[in-house]
Amino acid sequence: MPAIIEKVKKSGVELYLNLFAHRPETDNQEWDVSPDELRSVAVRWPSQYQWDAASDWVDVLLYGLRSHVPVEMVDNIPQKYRGTVVFEMIIGGRTRRIAIGYSDFMTIEEDCAEEFDLYFKMQFAKRGYGFANVIPGGYVPDGKRLYQHLGNLRKLRQSGNFKFDVYGRFGLAYARETREKAVQLLSDQEHFAFEGGMKTVLYLEFLQEVARSKVCIDMPGLGDFCFRLINYLAIGSCVVAYPHRTMLNMPLVDRKHIVYCREDMSDLVDLCEHYLFHDAERERIARNAREFFDLYLHKDNLVKYYLRNCLDRLKENVGG
Question: Are 168 and 102 contained in the same domain?
Answer without folding.
Answer: no
